[in-house]
C-alpha cells in the first residue's frame, strides 16, 4: 500500500487526466481534487459499514490520505 501522501497524489492525478480533455487547467485541478475527496469519502463509508471485517488501520489510512489531499489546498 502506498504512503498516504503518494496515494492522495495518485488519486488526484487519475481524476486530473480524465477531466483534462474537457476543462481548463485551474478548473480541472479543482474538479480532480473534488472527485478524489468523493472517492475517499465513499471508501471510508464502505469500510465503516463493514467495520467488523476491516482492520482499524484501514479507516485511519484513508483519513490520512484525505488529510494529505486537503493539505494541498
Detailed description of the structure:
There is one protein chain. With 73 residues, the protein is an all-alpha fold. It has one domain (4-71). Helix content is 79%, strand content 0%. It contains three helices and no strands. It has helices spanning 4-20, 25-49, 56-71.
What labels would you give this structure?
73 residues, mainly alpha, elongated
Question: Would you kindly provide a brief summary of this structure?
Answer:
The protein is an all-alpha fold and 73 residues long. It is built from 3 helices and no strands.
Distance between the termini: 24 Å
What's the shape? elongated
H/E element sequence: HHH
Total strand segments: 0
Strand count, sense and barrel status of the largest sheet are: none
| Total number of distinct structural domains | 1
Radius of gyration: 13 Å
| Overall residue-averaged pLDDT value | 87
Strand content: under 5%
What share of residues is helical?
over 70%
Give the topology, please.
Layout: H1 4-20, H2 25-49, H3 56-71
Helix pairs in contact: 1-2, 1-3, 2-3
